[in-house]
Amino acid sequence: MVEVDRKTFLASLPAGALAVMSHEDKAEALEHYMEDELDKKIAARRGEADGEAGSIITLDELEQEGPRAPRGTGRLFQPREEEFEPMPENPHLLDYFRLRFAPANHVLQSATHALTTGQPERTIFACLMHDVVLNMIKVDHGWWGAQLIEPYVDERIAWGIRYHGPLRFYPDDEFGYEYPEMYNRIFGHDYVPEPYIKQAYEYARNHRYYAESRLITVNDTYAFQDGMDVNIEVFTDIIGRQFKHPKEGLGFDNSPVAHMWRTIANPNRPL
To answer: How many helices (H) and strands (E) does the chain have?
Structure first.
């Protein structure tokens, strides 16, 4: 489990941001901070092995560069030291993992946790996809993430991803899901989710697909392990069975979400 020091985490926030952040903003910032720390640890370990460092600018370096992008901005729209590698002509989901979602350590660990605990294959795939949209946008990422893959997957997968965010803040003894103690340590015991989060939870709790989303949260919270390094190739067969790839390539099939895939593929395009 990645440990988080309260003072270090709060110091990572932009000056004056804490005073205007809602509880939900703080909870989202915490999860994203943990994912960044996980990626740094694994990148550092790979760098020691390969003799080179990663190309993502660190938080400290961003602070030195001047004003930062909004907190809800994903890595694709953050300053970089290198240009994006071009996508192939008919991009596959695996291409997006390698060239746009990488390093994707958190979702790879989450899917591995689901795999090793014997979860249904669609849950494993949902865990693999539940946070990939964070590279584009962080705000309400469950809704964005569900929309991104909805035309290509079983409706239960998209539904589970859509509601996994709100469910994080509500325990469920039946599934062995406890309210994250880290939230108490970081934000105190008076945390109250915003009304729309509570409303979404209550809707999901009474839905026939509730377990689809709850299983994502169970595997999500406990997946931050800095000693685990997983390759996307492990999930190639599962992706093939759970994701309906368009023959034209993701972003070029004229689906309702093709523009989202094109944005991820071409984040430097001005119009």
So the answer is: 14, 0
What gap in Å lies between CA 182 and CA 159, rounded to an integer? 26
Q: How confident is the model at residue 46 (pLDDT cuts 50, 70, 90)?
A: very low
DSSP state of 4: -
In a domain, 241, yes or no: yes
Q: Which pLDDT does position 89 carry in this prediction?
A: 93
**Domain ranges, residue 58:** 6-265
- How many domains are contained in the chain? 1
pTM exceeding 0.85 = no
CB 245 within 8 A of CB 149: no
How far is it, in rounded angstroms, from Cα 136 to Cα 77? 7
Asked whether residue 216 is domain-assigned, the answer is yes
Residue 188: per-residue pLDDT:
77
User: Which tokens belong to 249?
Assistant: 């390539």
pLDDT value for 100? 95
Band of residue 151 on the pLDDT scale cut at 50, 70, 90 = very high
Kindly state the tokens that stand for 186: 């970081």
Question: Would you state the structure tokens that stand for residue 194, as one six-digit string?
Answer: 């915003």
Residue 271 belongs to some domain of the structure? no
Integer Cα distance of 141 and 88 in angstroms = 26
Please spell the DSSP secondary structure of 54-77, one letter per residue.
Answer: -SBPPHHHHHHHSSPPPTTB-GGG
Determine the Cα–Cα distance for residues 102 and 226; give it in Å rounded to an integer: 16
Domain assignment present for residue 33? The answer is yes
Sign of CA dihedral 153, 156, 157, 161: positive
Phi, psi of 231 (to 5 degrees): -100, 140
| Alpha-carbon Rg for the chain in angstroms | 18
In the numeric block, which tokens belong to residue 238? 């599962």
- Using DSSP's 3-state secondary structure scheme, residue 177 falls into strand
